[in-house]
What we know:
The structure is a homotrimer.
Chain A: E1 3-13, E2 15-25, E3 31-34, H1 36-46, E4 51-56, E5 62-68, H2 72-85, H3 100-109, E6 112-118, E7 121-122, E8 128-134, E9 140-149
Amino acid sequence: MWIPACAGMTRESIMKIHDESFQLHTERRCEMTDITKEVEIVVCQSEIEAGEVTVYCPHTTAAITINENADPDVLYDMTMTLNELIPQNRRGYRHAEQNSDSHVKSSLFGCSERIMVKNSKMVLGTWQGIFFCEFDGPRSRKVLVQVRGI
Amino acid sequence: MWIPACAGMTRESIMKIHDESFQLHTERRCEMTDITKEVEIVVCQSEIEAGEVTVYCPHTTAAITINENADPDVLYDMTMTLNELIPQNRRGYRHAEQNSDSHVKSSLFGCSERIMVKNSKMVLGTWQGIFFCEFDGPRSRKVLVQVRGI
Amino acid sequence: MWIPACAGMTRESIMKIHDESFQLHTERRCEMTDITKEVEIVVCQSEIEAGEVTVYCPHTTAAITINENADPDVLYDMTMTLNELIPQNRRGYRHAEQNSDSHVKSSLFGCSERIMVKNSKMVLGTWQGIFFCEFDGPRSRKVLVQVRGI
Lengths: 150, 150, 150
């Protein structure tokens, strides 16, 4: 099963940290917005050659995920499946804001993702994009980006 | 959609790593315990100004998540929803310890979270707190905390 | 609740980053493969004493998770539960490749995990192992590993 695909490489230097943030406006209650390009710009501006970039959502009814950015039907199917599994109007919810489902979805997908940086670029798979997942929109939302490395 | 919210800033220095751990005792089979203050203390003690803190659960029937720490009803609703989706007594489970549901919940929420550190403080959203999620309690549990940065 | 389990320790040095990757071949549509040893080898080769290792899956129909590696029945139960919650042939899927369920499962478990490194070794709990989760196999898959630290 084990097939090494490349020779390992170690680099060392002073550590660099680059912080940035941006805002976005969502349009529906549940939707996935591709923010790959926005994150790429921050990685480029950071001038960090190797390390990791964190994409963080400081909200409790939204999430960040990595998934396919080729066929928009994938996003439709993912949102539909989540809504069927965890409907907004489930019986027995105590929280009065009608968004208990949004909080569950947020923890299931997670409020952040991290992508490796090599040669000053993010290492995403062929079909991977980074998505902001809105679960209680429409709203104005913020995304924090931090690049750490050398 | 793209509205840069702050000018990016890059800092560089020698890398620092600070390790700590603490224990907690859970009281019910499934419950979410706010551990934000415990993590804040570790970040403060680390004297690391910028970087990231990892909160890690070394157990396979528990998890770490970030969600709302204002209204306790959110935690009730989240736990209830998880238990309805993945009941303890699902038919067909082979594992003999009556906690297969706990293992699934652990992987769905994930056994760790990471929060950025800026100006020697964690960067959490207004309503965000860090929670230890017990899925097979009551038990004594351990939480590992590592701060990395400059 | 708060019982400090060890005295905190801070170390500092030049930052090191070590990159590696390997391939694996999956045999069923949904299966979990233990890749703990493969990751351990990379951590050992990196000669990094303290920090973190990222295990990253560059695919959108697979995932990386940490869970029990003692009783194989846990893996059977986890896979069965996911397949019951999110069946392959759900009504209404638009995506034509018969793998919309795989994309959802990928985002629920997440495409990467991170494990702390101390004394040149991964810090995993007693029962924890690292798993590559195939949700649309059999296929040839790639895993990226990056160790960052001092």
